[in-house]
Amino acid sequence: MIDSAENAPLLAMRGIDKSFPGVHALRQIDLTLRRGEVLALLGENGAGKSTLIKVLGGAHRPDEGEIRIEGEAVNIHSPADSQRAGVGVIYQEFNLVPSLTARENIFLGHERSTATFVNRGDEHQAAIELFERLGVSVDPETLCRDLSVAHQQVVEIAKALWLDARIMVMDEPSATLTPKEIERLFEVIRELQAAGIGIIYISHRLEEIFSIADRVTVMRDGGHVTTKLIDQLTRDELIEAMVGRKLENEFPARDVIPGKPRLVARGLTRGDAVRDVSLTVHQGEILGVTGLVGAGRSETARLIFGADRLDAGTVELDGKTLNIRQPRDAIREGICLLTEDRKNQGLILDQSVRHNFGLPNLSRFSSRGFINQAAEREAFAEFIDTLGIKTPHQEQQAGFLSGGNQQKVVLAKWLARECEVLIFDEPTRGIDVGAKYEIYLLMNDLAAQGKAIIMISSELPEILGMSDRILVMHEGRVTGEITDVAQATQEQIMQLAIQ
Amino acid sequence: MSEKPKSSQASIAPRAEASSFNWAQWFAEYGMLLVLGLLCVGMCLTTISETHPNGSSAGTEFADDIIQKHGADKQVLVVAGVTKEDKGFVEALAARLKESDVEIVAALNGFPGDARKILSDLQSQDKKVDLIACNSTSQTWSVWKVMRRESPQIGTMEVVSPESYYWPSFLSAGNVLGIIDNATIFAIIGIGMTMVIITGGIDLSVGSLLALAAVISTMMIRDLAGGADAGGLGVFVCCVTAIAVCGLLGALSGGIVLTFNTRPYVVPPFIMTLSMMLIARGLAYIISGNQTIAGPDLPASFNWLGAGTTFGPVRNPIVLMFVLYIVAHVMMSRTTVGRYIYAVGGNTEAARLSGVPVKRVLLWVYTGCGLLAGLGGVVLASRLSSGSATYGNTYELFIIAAVVVGGTSLSGGEGKVFGTLIGALIIAVVQSGLNQQGVSGRKQELVLGVIILAAVLLDMLGKRAVQKRRSKT
After folding, report:
1. 3.40.50.300, 3.40.50.20, 3.40.50.720, 3.40.50.2300: which CATH number matches A261-497?
2. Which ipTM value was assigned to this complex?
3. Which of A330, B156, B312, B433 has the fewest C-beta atoms under 10 angstroms from its C-beta?
């Protein structure tokens, strides 16, 4: 029984198997993608989604298995093979050259030229047509670094379209987008669907899956768990399939009663990014701070932490005014910041997890400048145990850990510091459901110890589920405070965030 | 619950480690040592030659040999040439023979003519000569044959000399120490360069700072401390001042680099130290008036640091170098400062947000590099007993090469100081080999370039193999 080209699925991956030394990353994975379909690929971090995508994108070669595109077996040995076969992969970190224009990026490596001269006019016209097809207006002559993340993504999609991609893979495309931008992304995806392009959509956000996907494939521990039409699944069933066990709640119950004020910030100002922001966090309280990307949330956190200089404003801790000029001062006073950008700001990826853990804690593990490495190892071993950090050994480079485990290393380094005020900036971004829950539990635990916690998040369910009080920001200002979180709704927050 | 294992490694099973011996890993860690070893083996093989024992130790040994073979009841004439080694040989040989009551009719350091005269004298005194103990030089003299023919009555006049053997001249203690000595300047300054490069920077000014320190120290000794009659303390103060000036200029470079390090207002280390390179070289020329400050104006004590041998046969700069390396290694691997240096190079922003005093670290590193460049200058001036603004030209490039050959990444965050020592030794071994083969200066540069490139490529290949193995987790 041979599929004719007409009936054959757009993409069929059969029995894909891939092992790395010590890890069986993919176990006999089957995946089918039809024309004009959005297939959501789900699974916790480390489930093998990225490896599978890299096999399709030509970054890894499978040990076993077969890939057919429109019924025809293809050999994908390199990213170029993959492109030629009609696969476009849009990775989370874009492959754009920031100093080139949108147009130049689209045609990079495939310039339209007569003799050796690039034909700008042609390219410009073609770029405009591509953007029109996607229903987005982007000026092709803007430098990529000046484009918003959403527009950069559109440029990536246009680039794939230009190469005649029939299969498009999007890895966490919504992670850094605002709700409005996500809506626009969905419109683009629907355009692509209408053109018969098949889309593999990877995301941790279940709401999105339910609104955009046609079918869902769930992976766990390198194996295939289930593939079903989205209508045949409930949210809980989906989580269960991913985690492999029943999850009672997405958010743990909180029973901490906030006490006296601990951190008080007054009139924080820096340029246009943060304008006259005041906030108070109480003992045992989790203060949720939300708003659209660019609302000044992270910038406010950086000001409190001393990462940027204040134009005006004061920060008090337990009634004492602090003089914070650099992060070092803030850390000494017991304030810590878990940055949203783990890879660039939270960790030194090329260095061992132990060194990363020790960095803010060296004063604890050293006397007269000499580090007691045994003490450091012992302390870190304890955190590896309690936080369940999955690392082969303490000397493993941080960059080789999965996102969730990287976040746990960042957590460990600040927990060891025993800070009094903890600022979590997007603590669960890019982290799977199971690990999210653990981090929530930990935050509750810290709050119960009387610490003051600020949690910045774009995920409204998380803000609503975890916060004792919510501040909403817009364009550098606090535009609203919600004290009765139990009665609050996402719509109410969005109203404040958009103003 | 059972007791917790003390080491965390024990509690978590290794996942990515292959069970078999990991060659790639080993090569990445110790590849440069292997390269150095291979170079040395190669040098040994190409320099194997006949070696004739000479000098005092050979003399003593040879004496025992003679008594064993010929007995103590002989009358012996001891003869060798006039070099220092020859004299030591004769002296030791004669002394040892006397100890064993061998009759020594005469001991001579001289020329064949002298030998002939002595033999004639002996003949006239009716003395007998059974053995003539020679070294390789005197053994070949034809005077022996002639005398045996002309005056057989003097005795058998059997010529004996220590047996020669084959040995790589590369491996002689003198040569090995010489090579290490040649590496000291690069190696000492290389410590500072390694630290700068680990922070992600570079320092092009070290060669010029070296010249500046050489000029300042020698001029101060000549003009302020009393010239050739300068006392030890004066010399010391002058040297420390010269080193301190270089430290200050290093601090200036560091200060400007760290003040302008946030985009878009950036003065990259390359540009800053390039300027400092020109400034310091210019200063050295201006201060010295383009004149070499030479030996006669400097006291003999000034020579102690660069050429003295307080510790047996090992020259003082070698000792200084090893001490500095041990200190630097401990600093980089065991102290907070070292950890901070790696952190700043690995990810400046993450380091700053983790409370690392980034600015202080950078200031310290550039100051340290300047100080070490100054120290290198003083050592060189002391070794050569002179100071000149031309010293250290293009040294910065060789020092950077030593650091890179030693496995330190130019992108910062990783590297080891001992690697730099290996790198400096590799360069010194190659240079010495080329000198022995009589390769001229220009050709040497070419060969050195190829060797540095090959070493770095090898290192990269090793690292890539490791990365490939590891990234698959």
Report:
1. 3.40.50.300
2. 0.74
3. B312
